[in-house]
UniProtKB/TrEMBL annotation:
Gene3D superfamilies found in the cross-reference section: Hotdog Thioesterase (3.10.129.10)
Gene name of the encoded protein: fabZ_2
Organism of derivation: Engelhardtia mirabilis
Molecular-function GO terms, alphabetical: (3R)-hydroxyacyl-[acyl-carrier-protein] dehydratase activity
EC numbers for this chain: 4.2.1.59
SUPFAM superfamilies per the UniProt record, alphabetical: Thioesterase/thiol ester dehydrase-isomerase (SSF54637)
Keywords: Lyase
Record protein name field: 3-hydroxyacyl-[acyl-carrier-protein] dehydratase FabZ
InterPro entries reported in the protein's UniProt record: FabA_FabZ, HotDog_dom_sf
Length: 159
């Protein structure tokens, strides 16, 4: 059974830009093909929630190989995008870590609930579970057209 959404559906709104891509890139260090966040559309530091978006397009680098003739957004890239969104929140919550790089510490309880194909906007929601001095755990979920397509717990570590 799918989990309850960690943010209200009203926050899955691509027209409410909190941070555009250039602003996101001021915080996140991934570049090139691994720039997985197009914008942040909601961020509540006190409430511990964030929502970011990624436009999934036919021109994305993975579409020719995964899967030829029927491109499916890879699950590992869903997890990467969600981790970047959660990292954005963490680094704004922990201002003292500005400029630090956060990498994966682990991923738990991952479930993929639907295939994602090009031509959609994917929303990545995160909610703080636990924050320590140099690591975090967030509950993350991905949505397309309001439908939950994946969920995971993401552990990030300052490296």
């Amino acid at each position: 059974m799918a989990a309850e959404p960690i943010v209200p559906a009203s926050l899955l709104d691509a027209s409410t830009i909190v941070a555009d891509k250039p602003k996101v890139l001021e915080t996140l260090q991934q570049r090139g093909r691994f720039e997985m966040v197009d914008a942040i559309v909601h961020m509540d530091l006190e409430g511990g929630t964030i929502v970011g978006i990624k436009e999934i397009t036919a021109g994305d680098w993975w579409t020719h190989d995964h899967i030829p003739g029927r491109p499916l957004f890879p699950g590992v890239l869903m997890i990467e995008a969600a981790a970047q969104v959660c990292t954005y929140h963490f680094l704004h919550f922990r201002k003292d870590l500005e400029g630090q790089f956060v990498g994966f510490g682990g991923v738990d309880n991952v479930r993929f609930r639907a295939a994602v194909q090009p031509g959609v906007t994917m929303f990545f929601a995160g909610r703080v579970v636990r924050v320590r001095s140099r690591m975090f755990t967030y509950k993350a979920q991905g949505f397309v057209d309001g439908q939950l397509v994946f969920e995971a717990e993401i552990l990030g570590v300052v490296v």
